[in-house]
Predict the 3D structure of the following.
Amino acid sequence: MNNKEQQILKIIKYTPSTFILISSIIVTLFLYFENKKTFLKEKEEIEKKYILENKAIAQDEVNRVYDFIKHLQKTTENELKESIKNRVYEAHTIATAIYDKYKDEKSKEEILDIIKTTLNDFRYNQGRGYFFIDNIKGEKVLQPPNKALEGKSLLDYKDANGYQFMHSIVKTIADKTERYDQYYWENPNSKVNNSRKISFYKYFEPFNVAIGSGEYVEEFEKQIQKKALDFIKLVHYGKSGYIFIINYDGVYLNHIRPEYIGKNAIENNDTVNIQKVISDLIQISKNGEGFYSYTQNKKPDTNLPTQKISFVKGLNDWGWMIGTGFYEDEINETIKKREQELNEKFDTYVKNIFILSIFLTLILLFISKYISNFFTNKFNEYKKELNKQQNILYQQSKMASMGEMIGNIAHQWRQPLSTITTASTGILLEKEFGLLKDETLKDSLNKINNSAQYLSNTIDDFRNFFNPEKIKNHFLISTILKKTLDLLSAQFNSQNIEIIKNIEEIEMNSYENELIQAFINILNNARDELKNKDIKQKLIFISVSKNENQAIIKIKDNAGGITKENINKIFEPYFTTKHKSQGTGIGLYMTEEIIVRHLKGSIKAKNKEFSYENSSYVGAEFTIKIPL
């Protein structure tokens, strides 16, 4: 039994058991890593879910505050407008009452002076609010904060934005109606000319003038901002959520830490790389809204540095950044809890799988042992039958070439038989005529003896070749090749095939007859191919060399090579390109069996281009390697 067969038996015996054990290990490991994979995936999903949920919460909280401020601005502005309108209506009522009281007693100029005197001293909204009167010519009739403007026309006056608001007042008088207006005017409290003001004008018919009043937006916004900040201070959510407000100058207007309020964020140094963080957050706010991740130096409930993600939104008309955020460390508690649940589940899972794996493994090992023994017996039976069939094929291969061998022997015997016949006839004739000499007799008898020895050796070679016994013995490869060529010489000579040899003297211990059979099969194939070729010089090259512990035998011809579609099939059983009457297709198959299975060697065939005596050829080359 060779190594490959022993390996096959080992595979049959041990593969099922090994497969079962490995499968159990793989399943257990698979479940383990699947659990780890599931945990990591869930961890990632928890992180994503936590971040997404908290981002949504942060965004909602900021939007809620933003919407509250916008609502506050709108409602307070409406209230302010209504308040200004009511004030003007009060002044209009007062002026009407004065006019009605004195219209029959005093001149219009006197009545107007009384109205101006009465309204001049009225103040409201901490002194910011006052009444003014303008006429159809665009002249200031009453201007309490700046008496120097009274009597002067402001038709050509433009505010900071180029707006000529006096034209709107004149139009209100001309239309005998009332209206709201916005423009820039000097704030008497701050002495700033570019203070935006909301005003209301109402037509006063007795004097064809408009009575008006207004409020400065900056003063109004301060009140709204205070209301907004008072509300924002009360906003808290979750574990440590709060709203922070920073203006575009970087000053905190609201924070959970009261000591931060009124100070610049850089001064508070609340984050790592504070200048970049504040600059980036302000820029995001100016552009609209967005998320930003940074490290806060002190988390409110732990005072430890913590990674934070904040959402900020810009309130550009006030120059405010409204923001809130959440801390990434809070996710660890959720992950830790989930990890514990998964580990407990996995431990139970592994324990059950382990018990089940042991139970199934024992059952399957028993079954596999029975199956492996069954297949081992079947394999041994098959091996015996296969060896028997191979021996039959081997003998069939020899018998297939017997006809050729007999022809070769007949051809080889012609010359020695002719020599024997000629020598014996010559002796007989010379004896009859009394001419026979001792020297002639001796020479003729030697020829007869040599020819008989040659015939005997030929018979021995033929008999040895067809001997079915397989016995290892020592021999020279050159001797085996000589015997092979002697058996085939007649047919090679008849086809004018020239043998070119380059043979080293290499001794080996192997099966002589089987090696001869392999050589005959290869040489006969070369002969058959050359016989069908119409070429001037028919050549077969045989080389024998030694490489370390291997004998390398190469046999090639110049018959044109093997076709691409057939070169990988030539060692298959019953494959032949010849007619059924000329070939069985087992010659090269048996050659491979002999070389590979019996002699433990290798054989390969390829097409090769080569040159010989200045001529180029293509032919098939067989390379045989046999261990020594």
Residues 564 and 607 are 9 Å apart (CA to CA). The mean pLDDT is 84. The two ends are 19 Å apart (CA to CA). The first strand starts at residue 131 and ends at 135.
